[in-house]
TrEMBL record:
<keyword id="KW-0378">Hydrolase</keyword>
<dbReference type="InterPro" id="IPR044668">
    <property type="entry name" value="PuuD-like"/>
</dbReference>
<feature type="region of interest" description="Disordered">
    <location>
        <begin position="77"/>
        <end position="99"/>
    </location>
</feature>
<dbReference type="GO" id="GO:0005829">
    <property type="term" value="C:cytosol"/>
</dbReference>
<dbReference type="GO" id="GO:0006598">
    <property type="term" value="P:polyamine catabolic process"/>
</dbReference>
<dbReference type="InterPro" id="IPR029062">
    <property type="entry name" value="Class_I_gatase-like"/>
</dbReference>
<dbReference type="GO" id="GO:0033969">
    <property type="term" value="F:gamma-glutamyl-gamma-aminobutyrate hydrolase activity"/>
</dbReference>
<protein>
    <submittedName>
        <fullName>Gamma-glutamyl-gamma-aminobutyrate hydrolase family protein</fullName>
    </submittedName>
</protein>
<dbReference type="InterPro" id="IPR011697">
    <property type="entry name" value="Peptidase_C26"/>
</dbReference>
<dbReference type="Pfam" id="PF07722">
    <property type="entry name" value="Peptidase_C26"/>
</dbReference>
Length: 247
């Protein structure tokens, strides 16, 4: 007879790993998830689980992705290097991407496509937001050197639209965001709504108003400041609460 295992006390949150060329502790290349990110999920009551982004040829079997995600209560698409322009129909330009990896790109986009077809709660951060936008037919704009207000390694204020899921989750209409991106949303994907902007007009957050399951995408890194900024931690708490609601 099949063995029935009890569900974990904490909701299981799938987080695709990021490739690292080398790690000093291991002396080898590694698959990692930022400690600040898993700690923010843990403080919110979730059980963060790292997923191996297996898509060697740059594509990914949708059935395999679906099977791998069946045991999870929610998905968090984390930040990372930029998606290459070819993934959203643009022509690559010199210096337009930092460190593209076909295996990781293929897996992230496959996860985004699958989760958007389900009722799984989804939190998308930085590159994760961009993956969702591309999965829904949107495009990105590369911020080349010399751009007037680059958002790479910048802390700035973001205005949140009232009466949105993001405002309800964070409890604020102005938040201080820690950004680390070289690209930003250009054409917004089908069904997405912009719910926060920087003072230079950069789209900083997206939602799917007509999606039944919880979804928020932010262009900044809430995990960077969540330990001491209640509004940023509240975003993780709202996400994990949503994952627990469907258990």
């Amino acid at each position: 007879m099949p063995v029935t295992r009890p569900r974990p006390a904490r909701p299981l949150i799938a987080i695709p790993a990021r490739f690292s060329v080398s790690t000093s502790a291991l002396r080898y290349s590694a698959e990692i998830v930022a400690r600040a990110l898993v700690e923010a999920v843990w403080r919110a009551g979730g059980e963060p689980v790292t997923l191996h982004p297996h898509a060697p040829d740059g594509s990914c079997d949708p059935a395999l992705v679906a099977e791998r995600l069946t045991r999870f209560d929610g998905v968090l698409l984390p930040g990372g290097d930029e998606l290459p322009p070819g993934r959203y129909g643009n022509t690559p330009t010199h210096g337009s991407t930092h460190d593209a990896d076909a295996e990781q790109d293929g897996f992230d986009l496959a996860v985004a496509h699958h989760v958007l077809r389900t009722e799984l709660p989804l939190l998308a951060i930085c590159r994760g937001l961009q993956a969702v936008n591309v999965a829904l037919g949107g495009t990105l704009q590369v911020q080349l050197a010399g751009w007037r207000r680059r958002h790479h390694n910048l802390v700035h204020q973001v205005a949140v639209q009232p009466a949105t899921l993001l405002e309800l989750s964070m409890g604020a209409q102005v938040v201080t965001a820690s950004c680390f991106h070289r690209t930003h949303v250009d054409r917004v994907g089908a069904g997405l709504k912009v719910t926060a902007r920087a003072d230079d007009g950069t789209r900083e957050a997206l939602e799917l108003p007509h999606r039944r399951a919880w979804f928020a995408g932010v262009q900044w890194h809430p995990e960077h400041t969540a330990r001491h900024d209640p509004a940023q931690q509240a975003l993780f708490e709202a996400f994990v609460r949503a994952t627990g609601a469907g258990r």
